[in-house]
Design a protein that fits this description.
The chain has 173 residues and is an all-alpha fold. It has one domain (10-172). It has 5 helices and no strands. It has helices at 14-32, 36-68, 78-99, 110-145, 148-172. Helix 2 packs antiparallel against helix 5 (148-172). The two termini are 17 Å apart. One fe (ii) ion (FE2) is lined by residues 13, 17, 53, 57, 134. One fe (ii) ion binds next to helix 2.
Length: 173
């Protein structure tokens, strides 16, 4: 799956979420096939790309959302996004720590693998919940309330961030 090359509305940022979902599945498939090195690389790339997306959402989108939408909808309160971002980043960090020493020579015990996949399930559930919240409130309302010019400028910045993160990914692979 390829990263989106352009965004015409905030709701199209959901395509980036789809990319992350796909990258996470790739990570799981590598693990199932005992390809530990590739699994670590895939997850590291996901961490960089998702980290940038979260950083840009918090720096560029959430302040504007707070300014333009008053009152904020019940399910779209600012602290929900921020708390979920912390939780999502925390999961990825822990996954990387867990698999850090895994290799063909030192494979994980069956139980370790089961525990990791259980945590992967929780992670996917959280991400799905978060993405739905953004699609329903943050992205949709920003699409409604921003002028074309402002929307275009912000989406370009999101795309630039994505491009920078991609370059950082190339540096680790
Ligand atoms: Fe987010
Ligand atoms: Fe997002």
């Amino acid at each position: 799956m390829k990263l989106p090359q352009s965004y015409h509305s905030f709701r199209e940022l959901d395509q980036f979420h789809n990319y992350i979902d796909s990258s996470f599945r790739t990570f799981q498939i590598f693990l199932m096939h005992k390809k530990y090195k590739q699994a670590k690389l895939e997850l590291k790339r996901l961490q960089i790309l998702l980290g940038q997306h979260i950083k840009d959402e918090e720096a560029l989108l959430l302040p504007l959302y707070k300014k333009l939408i008053n009152p904020l909808p019940k399910g779209g309160a600012l602290e929900f996004y921020i708390r979920e971002h912390e939780q999502i980043s925390g999961y990825v960090k822990r996954f990387l720590q867990t698999i850090h020493d895994w290799s063909v020579e030192k494979p994980p015990a069956g139980l370790e693998l089961v525990k990791l996949f259980d945590a992967c399930y929780d992670f996917k559930h959280l991400v799905d919940h978060h993405d739905t919240r953004e699609d329903t409130f943050l992205y949709r309302l920003l699409d409604q309330k921003t002028q074309d010019k402002k929307r275009k400028a912000l989406l370009e910045k999101m795309l630039n961030g994505q491009q920078n993160a991609l370059e950082a990914c190339d540096a680790v692979t």
